[in-house]
What does this fold into?
Amino acid sequence: MNDRFLRACRREPVDMTPVWFMRQAGRYMSAYRGIRERFSLLEICRQPELAAQVTLQPVEAIDVDAAILFSDLLLPLEPMGIPFDFVKGEGPVIDPPVRTVERIDRLRVFEPREGLGHVLDTIRLLSLRLADRVPLIGFAGAPFTLASYAIEGGPSSNYARTKALMYGEPEAWHRLADTFATVVADYLNAQIEAGVQAVQVFDSWVGALSPRDYREFALPHTQKIFETVRAGGVPMLHFGTGTTTLLPTMREAGGDVIGLDWRIPLDEGWALVGDDCAVQGNLDPTLLLGPVERLLRGAVDVLRRAGGRPGHVFNLGHGILPGTNLEHVQLLARFVHEQTGGPW
It folds into this structure.
């Protein structure tokens, strides 16, 4: 099996820089759009054969060094007692949202092997189909991001309701975040048991917090996840967006690999998390929408800042955007491998 992704996560020498892309399976691929014409996102997630098929699409089409499970961050919400759906043009909608202490106290901690057994079945299918190819990455959402979805009722630009509850009812907030931490840690451990070879914790919205608020309201709960999952023995990745001011504290919260978004040069971000930690990133995903020459210049800059040091996983600073040209993604993966081929 091609294990350069796993080796890079462990800061071991690799023959070339490993590449994978967040949202590497999705709407920019015609094969995925063909499936979405017949099935909703949640229907795909709930049918292991379909979810496995979508997970494999970019592995077949692009020279990536890892597959990431096709699923959704919000799947744990429903078994906890937080119903949601996806509304066209709006994204996820949680109805009713979680905005009272009473509602928080009614949430359930569930057994993921039962409540999300279909996800684990997908992983088992993929473990067989990827056995001699590339590693499979599992994932889940971090407590702050999941709590924000639940409280806001969907996407938000300022997270005002989340912060109002956080500041106004801190004890209830910590109960809520701790419940999410317990659920997510159990879920990730179940994914590892089912066969994933690495896990990524997405804290997509945590950039809305100041460093002081992150330390008080988010760090203890994210730290609980990483401490609980560490026994699984697989590399753990920790990613958020808008996190330039949070990077040292995110490293403290946990993770073998810290994801960097495009808002900070990779070498500066690496210095903030520490040279003894691996990093992932961090090309601006919108460069894939522009001219190839500019795209490749951006990739060269990321690789130059990585400097050939062990512990760099090439990725975007966030997910591939829907309007992206597949040929640009294919070219970028090949280019990174060509530019970095040979042992360090």
Notes: The first strand starts at residue 67 and ends at 68. The chain has a mean pLDDT of 96.
